[in-house]
Amino acid sequence: MDGFDFVTAVDDKRWGTVVGQEAGYVIVEHGTLRKHRYAVPESSIDVNEQEREVRTTISGEMISESPKVDDEFDRAAVERHYGFDDADGPSAAETSGGESAVEQRAQIRGGSAESTDGMPDESPALLGDRLSDVREDEER
User: Contact, 55 vs 40, CB < 8 A?
Assistant: First the structure.
């Protein structure tokens, strides 16, 4: 996986390059001039060998807010950031209900695990629907 492009599915853009793996995490290098390394849980990635690409369900913003692993990999700090139980690590993504971390994030975003864009199926306000109790002259 080293050298593969790292793409965030939420933003659908290249975010960095995979530079290694450590203890259930993929290490990703991000930045142009000032490069930093971040750990991303393997439970949140999908590897496409053909395209030499790794996709994650985590947003680039959430990854960049995680502890950097430039010099030292502080597994406990990274696990706290991603919401894993310190004792169980990334394997704690499975809950008592059997939902994976991907499914949990999809539920939080209000979608399903199959829906990767996190957007609702319809949005009446964006389609120009108006509130029935608002008069035309009040809208302006």
Answer: no
Q: pLDDT digits over 89-106, tens only? A: 444 444 334 455 556 666
Q: To the nearest 10°, the Cα dihedral for 15, 86, 105, 108?
A: -130
The sign of the torsion formed by the CA atoms of 70, 72, 78, 80 equals: negative
CA distance 132 to 140: 15
Report d(CA 112, CA 104) in Å as an integer.
9
User: Which amino acid is present at 9?
Assistant: A
Structural domains for the chain = 5-118 (3.90.50)
Could you give the dihedral angle defined by the CA atoms of residues 75, 77, 78 and 81, in that order, rounded to the nearest 10 degrees?
160
